[in-house]
Amino acid sequence: MRVRELAETAQLGQNTQQRLEQQLLQMEHRTYLWLHLAIDDIRSTFENSFRPAEESVRLIPPSVNHAYERILDRVPPDKVHTVKKVLQIIIAARRPLTTTEMAMALGITLYPESQTAVEAMLDSSQIDKKLRRLCGLFVFINNTKIYLIHQTAREFLIFKANMNSVHDLYSWCLIDTEDQMASICLKYLSMEDLEAEKEELSSDALSFLEYSAVYWADHVRKMSSNSSQELNDRLHQVYKSSGNLFSLWFPIFWKAVMPIHTIPSMKALHLAAFNGHEREVKHLLTINGSDINAADDTSTYPITWASWNGHAEVVQILLDNGADVNSLGGWYGNALQAACLGGRDRIVQILLEKGAEVDAQGGEYGNALQAASSKGHDKIVQMLLEKGADVNAQDEWTGNALQTASSKGYDKIVQMLLEKGADVNAQDEWTGNALQTASSKGYDKIVQMLLEKGADVNAQDEWTGNALQAASSKGYDKIVQMLLEKEADVNARDRLDGYALQAACFGGHGRIVQMLLEKGAEVDDQG
């Protein structure tokens, strides 16, 4: 069907059409993608031929990569630079750009002397047609979003050593695309007209705001170590930004990377540490090293931000320059707790070797051991235990590590804590004990482990009752059976006069009701 349509479009004779069909069918490793590209290449050949009937069909591209090369071969010499920039932008972008975003990104690249966003912006009304015309089938646009035709197109474009091909004009290393995209984002975030009030800015000026605000830091993190001085100067400028410009992009950035927390007021060093921008951290330390042990308005320190985000090199730089390894405050308590929470075992090791207090209390998770236990980071739990972490350290709000791990179903960590002597019956005002919380979540393996370690099957919490009530209310009959075999008090009541049979009836768990009755549950109790 595709060949017939091509023949009609190019006004080919019957003989030429048949010859073309036969040649295509003789090709090995035919795929839909190859056929799509080959037909487009053949169409271009015939459309540009004065004698299409005599055109050699043996020039059909034998592979997808050959078809890609043919597409690039057809780019006019004076447009090669533009096409290369377009393809680099598409490859480096963290998500498909819209045509409007491309109009700004490409404008900044092609016209680096632009001082305002409006000045850099290309006409976006026809950019989709121009991109298709210049890039051929490499690019397709769907709902204003720009894509490469296939993953193989990306692989083809990323650096290939082929010194004898025109394709060399389009070869690059992936890090080159990161440098370019970092430069585009930083240039945009430094535009003079963005200093105005947001209400005064045109839609064109704001067209690249969301992308650059969200992804600039990631592109900078991935750029080459020998990036140009101009690029480094742009980075310094963004970190120095304040007033309307900073207020324009920073809230967008923060909501994208830390959506659950309020927007802080950060100094440049805190932000650079958060982003893992090593060179900028070093640069800022030479300007104002006193900020290294200063907290932001959330009481969080640069070393804590770097630890949370897993930037080990930045953590080391800060420590080498005098950062206090035990600075306490903020959401994450301290650097060690932040690293434990994020599963950053390399940073945990660095901090412990620098004398981090393993049992320091504070933050949302109490201490480092609880933080690691709450997220299932068993390797870090082991590191902390080997450093002598108090396995029974109790936090007013979150209990202890054993309760935390039991509530999340991390049986490997529960086993590690029990082997280190964790108090199996430690009680917490809000969550009860480990047996109750494991029973309420249906973690029967953990319940078995706790019972084998002597957990009090009848331990009663002021508000939530006991393990039997918890399991009965949720319908976990296997756990109910385990508790009953350990002689759980079938008629025990909580503070609100509730009990296991009542909980099972309310939940409609008939099998558990039967089990409780067989164990002597009092039917006429009123609770």
Automatic annotation (TrEMBL):
InterPro entries: Ankyrin_rpt (IPR002110), Ankyrin_rpt-contain_sf (IPR036770), DUF7069 (IPR055497), GPIID_WHD (IPR054471). Residues 2-49 form the DUF7069 domain. SMART domains: ANK. Residues 83-159 form the GPI inositol-deacylase winged helix domain. Keywords: ANK repeat, Repeat. It holds the Pfam family WHD_GPIID. This is NWD NACHT-NTPase N-terminal domain-containing protein.
